[in-house]
User: Which sequence fits this backbone?
């Protein structure tokens, strides 16, 4: 039974049988061809037997080795590398076909690779997978079909069956921002250099003046000591940002966050941005915390700066799911009031499509803004933007564009209305969410607002 389950025939085998059928039909009309066709059939049968013996040689377990090498966890929304290692132990050249049974969440049936292995040769096959949902992803078996140079029969080998890989929020994006922040190259991903308006009172050092420094920070005594016949070298006092400030990411998990964009939901974009921002806040010596809510407040992770805080944030965000109920901002306001006692930066990731939707929640936002610095982050409809950028050529397109302009105007009106009450806002496309959020955080830090 093991032999039968591992034995497959190739398309070349069936095409050869089709050729013999046609040859026998022709031999019926031309009898002189019959002996030749019969001899060819016998030779073909012998070749099939020899090929089967070569494929199923006496040491079947050592004939071929394969292994799938994948990360212990995948990063949501990113391209994750997967490597297939192949090693042939056959004494002849072997064409192989590799079919990897990837998780059903990807809905792909084209993960087929072909290669040719020389005797005792090993090869690597690399491909990438981009998950769009967090959770557990299960790989099936790694199927390797081995053939001889005749390629009439195939022998199937199965490796690495039933492996589970969890998909976490985008930690690859987090590491990218962390590396760029460490090397002062955040501008490469759209992070702007913020001119400092004022400064905190935490003195750091005295350093030489550089263009752009506030002239009010000149240290006259240090400048006098550095003055020499060659000229005057200005020295300025450098101040560091306020540290250990609480930064909370409030993540809305209601139905408004189920909207998809490029395979990911708005909740996934918010979670990826919250993870990156929390890491940047910890690098800036601030305290990072998370609060998730929908029709009720679900989970609260107090803002801390302990070594394991980032891992706690990652594990908390991994389990978040959107619901179908409307968000309850009243319970959020009460929870914030009783849980977060110190003035903090609150980044609220949500979405408002109309001014009426904002007006229903505005009293609760204003109440939170009294005690904390509130930053509301919501999303621009990119499909609507592409519709508005195209010229209207028909009457229907004119009506569609007019309706689109109304929705776009309401988004801008929401921004102005929030700013009237001193609430900071970010209106951004989903793909720019992380960069714009980090920019705003650094701007607020530079302005000394937190």
Assistant:
């Amino acid at each position: 039974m093991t032999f039968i389950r591992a034995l497959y025939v190739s398309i070349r085998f069936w095409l050869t049988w089709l050729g013999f059928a046609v040859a026998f039909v022709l031999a019926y009309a031309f009898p002189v061809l019959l002996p030749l066709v019969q001899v060819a059939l016998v030779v073909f049968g012998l070749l099939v037997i020899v090929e089967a013996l070569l494929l199923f040689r006496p040491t079947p377990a050592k004939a071929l080795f394969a292994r799938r090498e994948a990360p212990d966890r995948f990063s949501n929304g990113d391209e994750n590398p997967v490597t297939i290692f192949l090693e042939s132990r056959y004494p002849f050249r072997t064409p192989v076909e590799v079919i990897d049974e990837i998780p059903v969440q990807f809905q792909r049936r084209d993960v087929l690779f072909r290669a040719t292995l020389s005797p005792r040769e090993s090869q690597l096959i690399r491909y990438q997978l981009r998950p769009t949902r967090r959770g557990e992803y299960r790989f099936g078996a790694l199927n390797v079909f081995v053939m001889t140079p005749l390629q009439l029969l195939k022998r199937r080998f199965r490796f690495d069956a039933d492996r589970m890989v969890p998909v976490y929020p985008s930690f690859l994006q987090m590491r990218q921002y962390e590396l760029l922040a460490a090397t002062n190259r955040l501008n490469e991903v759209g992070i702007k250099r913020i001119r400092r308006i004022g400064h905190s009172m935490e003195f750091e050092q005295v350093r030489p003046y550089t263009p752009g420094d506030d002239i009010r920070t000149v240290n006259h005594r240090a400048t006098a000591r550095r003055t020499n016949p060659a000229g005057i070298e200005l020295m300025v006092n450098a101040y560091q940002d306020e540290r250990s400030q609480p930064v909370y990411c409030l993540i809305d998990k209601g139905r408004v966050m189920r909207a998809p964009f490029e395979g990911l939901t708005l909740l996934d974009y918010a979670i990826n941005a919250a993870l990156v921002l929390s890491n940047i806040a910890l690098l800036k010596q601030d305290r990072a915390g998370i609060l998730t809510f929908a029709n009720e407040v679900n989970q609260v992770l107090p803002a801390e700066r302990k070594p394991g805080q980032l891992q706690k944030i990652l594990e908390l965000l991994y389990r978040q799911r959107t619901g179908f109920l409307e968000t309850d901002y009243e319970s959020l306001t009460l929870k914030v009031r009783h849980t977060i006692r110190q003035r903090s930066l609150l980044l609220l990731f949500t979405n408002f499509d109309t001014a009426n939707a904002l007006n229903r929640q505005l009293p609760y936002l204003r109440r939170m803004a009294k005690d904390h610095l509130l930053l509301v982050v919501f999303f621009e409809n990119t499909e609507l933007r592409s519709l508005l950028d195209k010229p209207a050529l028909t009457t229907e397109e004119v009506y569609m564009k007019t309706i689109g302009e109304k929705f776009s105007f309401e988004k801008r009106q929401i921004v102005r209305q929030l700013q009237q009450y001193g609430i900071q806002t970010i209106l951004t496309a989903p793909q720019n969410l992380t960069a714009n959020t980090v920019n705003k955080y650094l701007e607020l830090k530079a302005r000394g607002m937190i």
